[in-house]
Design a protein that fits this description.
The chain is an alpha/beta fold. Helix content is 23%, strand content 36%. Helix 1 packs across helix 2. The longest helix is centred in the N-terminal third of the chain and has 18 residues. The termini are close together. The structure holds guanosine-5'-monophosphate (5GP) and magnesium ion. Guanosine-5'-monophosphate binds next to strand 4, strand 6, helix 3 and strand 9.
Length: 173
Amino acid sequence: MLEPGDVLITAEAIQARVADLAEEIRAHYAEPPVLLGLMNGALFFLNDLLRCLPPEAEFQCSTISSYAGTKSTGRIRGLDTISEGLRGREVLVIDDVLDTGLTLSEVRAHLRKLGAGETRICVLLRKNVERSAEVEAHWVGFDIGEEFVVGYGLDYDGKYRSFEDIRVMRDTG
Ligand code: 5GP
Ligand code: MG
C-alpha cells in the first residue's frame, strides 16, 4: 500500500522559492503575461505565485491530466479546456511537475495552434528522468529525483493535495 512518507520539501522552503521565482519572472517581463495554470496539480503554486506578481497579472486555468495512480498513461486529456482567448497573448504556463515532458510539449503545441504569443514554462518540480518529449522549463522551483510526491496541490488518486509541504509516497507493503 502506498502512503505519504518523509517530507522532501518543507512549506517554508516552498514559500521562499516561490517568492524568488516570482522575482525572476517579474524581472523578465515588461508586461505581465497571462498565466495558464494546469489544474489540478498547479492550484497551490499558481495561487502563491500570483500573489507575488503585479496585480495586473491575469490568469486562466485548464484541466489537463495524464496520470492514473503513480503512472503516466501517456495520453493527455483536456487540451480543449485551454481558452481560445489566448490568441496573440504572451503566456506563462504554470505546472506542478515536469516528468516525461509529454503534458507540457502537448500544451505548448496546442498554444501554438491557437496562435498564442511567446510561451514560457514555469514548473514547481522537475524530475531527473529521461524525457519522452523534448521540453525545457524556463523557471524551475526544485529539481528532484524519480520519486512520486504529493502535497502542495499534488495528489495520489485525488488525495493528499492539501499538505503544505511536499512528501514522498512510500510503499508500506
Ligand atoms: P509528464 O506529462 O511530464 O509526464 O507529467 C506531468 C504531469 O504528471 C504533472 O503535471 C503531474 O500532474 C503528474 N505527475 C508527474 N509526477 C508526479 C508526482 O510525482 N506526483 C504527482 N502527484 N503528480 C505527478
Ligand atoms: Mg499536472
